[in-house]
Amino acid sequence: MAGLRMGQGVLRRKPIEQIEEGDASERLTRTLGLWQLTAIGVGGIIGAGIFTLAGAVANGTAGPAVLISFLIAGVASAAAAFSYAEFAGMIPKAGSAYTYGYVVLGELAGWFIGWDLLLEYTAIVAVVAIGISGYFNFLVKDLGAELPTWMLGAPGTGDGHRVDLFAAVLCLFIAYLLTLGIKSAARFETVVVVLKVLVVLLVIGVGVFHINTSNYSPFFPFGVGGAFTGAATVFFAVFGYDAMSTAAEESKDAQRHMPKAIMYSLAISMVLYVLATLVLTGMQNYKEVDPESGFSTAFQSVGLGALADVIAVGAIIGILTVMFTFMLGVTRVWFSMSRDGLLPHWFAKTHPTRHVPVRVTWIVGVASALIAGFLPIGEAAELTNIGILLAFAVVCTAVIVLRYRRPELPRSFRTPGMPLVPAIGVVFSIWLITFLAWETWLRFAVWFALGLIIYFAYSYRKSALAKTARPSAEERGKE
Questions:
Q1: Which residues contact 76 (CB under 8 A, 6 or more apart)?
Q2: Highest mean pLDDT: which of 14-18, 257-261, 433-437?
């Protein structure tokens, strides 16, 4: 009897009609409009993918076919984006994939997604901070200055390196920014996103006149497989809307605006990615592309050193928005899980006047600073991707299940091509997972095992749904 009840417990679902925002101490403020949401989405998608990953993947994984890598990742991401858009318009609450999984597939599935996103989003913040630090170091050297060696990178990344101090400080700065309140933070994000897009357009507009088409040959120097491996690597550069969707509870009209913001942000970003990768691999042979500051060195190679400095500054400022989006995402997932009782309620308390989860924001800020400061970018990046891909697969599956289970629910956006489009998202996501290194699987397995221990030791008994489904004395007596 107890075993049966446990089996039913892990599958208990959070009713859509009963999703509450909690009491005043666990409530977020609805202040974000459509274009602020879109800016957060674009801010999360465009950043390290253009300024850092494009160069790294072109140099060592795909060559000029990095363009194909982005297109493959973009197709998988678009299929998932439709699913996220349907859920965002139907369940405008904090938590994104965690909440969607909890509502449709049950508590254990929701926990699994949420627990995984806590690590992956935090790691992404750290990876992006390290990427920004690479451009910062390029800029400092180009200006003729010299910083102490000990602060230039994590241990093992160079002689005398002890900590990537700039990356660590950036993580703490973003955490501080988010504690000021969502309205002030989103205003900063919007301004910086506009500046970033202008820098990308500058790169494309000037770089196109310095393209040497011979650099596109051979187009697949690492084979077609290199393009697919590159797609798995750059995949985290073509999402961001999922982290943005965690802010649904802070949107003024989430049911109408969230689906639009998701689709707008992905469409804008993919166009810019395609054009930027064409320029990068056309300006410089893929073997000479700098893996850390690709565009700056590419422009320097054609005698445009001054513009290279502008790009470096733009990269530093622009990639901040990626950190902002994903730190916003991880804090809202953590907040939502705590409000549901799966993690201690202490984490769900919000600031009395700013109405943001300050406690979890500082914890994430410090954690990401430690990762950014003391892990090389390769090891930090290995903490990302696999969980995001699995979350995408779960969300795409859930949208199919809910469409058939609850067809009568009002939907402000409906995923087209049901069930084919979300099925494509599932297949692509699982397929891309197979290209990830075994070390990534190992780290994921360890984190997942730790999550299962915490769930059955704490979350299973303490969740809000568990408290409303306690067995009666009579039922206990029958066991």
A1: 231, 235, 392, 424, 425, 428, 429, 432
A2: 257-261
Residue pair 238/70 in contact by the 8 Å Cβ criterion: yes
- Dist. CA 194–CA 212, nearest whole Å: 29
* Pairwise CA distance, residues 255 & 267, whole Å: 20
Mean pLDDT value across residues 70-83:
88
| Residue 428 pLDDT greater than 80, yes or no | yes
Cα separation of 171 and 131, whole Å? 12
Residue type, 376: P
pLDDT higher than threshold 70 for residue 43: yes
Cβ atoms 410, 91 nearer than 8 A: no
pLDDT above 80 (res 439): no
Structure-block tokens of residue 341:
């009782």
Q: At what angle do helices 305-339 and 182-207 cross, to 10 degrees?
A: 150
Residue 362: Cβ-neighbour burial (10 angstroms; 0-12, 13-18, 19+): middle
CB 51 within 8 A of CB 294: yes
- Determine the pLDDT at residue 467: 75
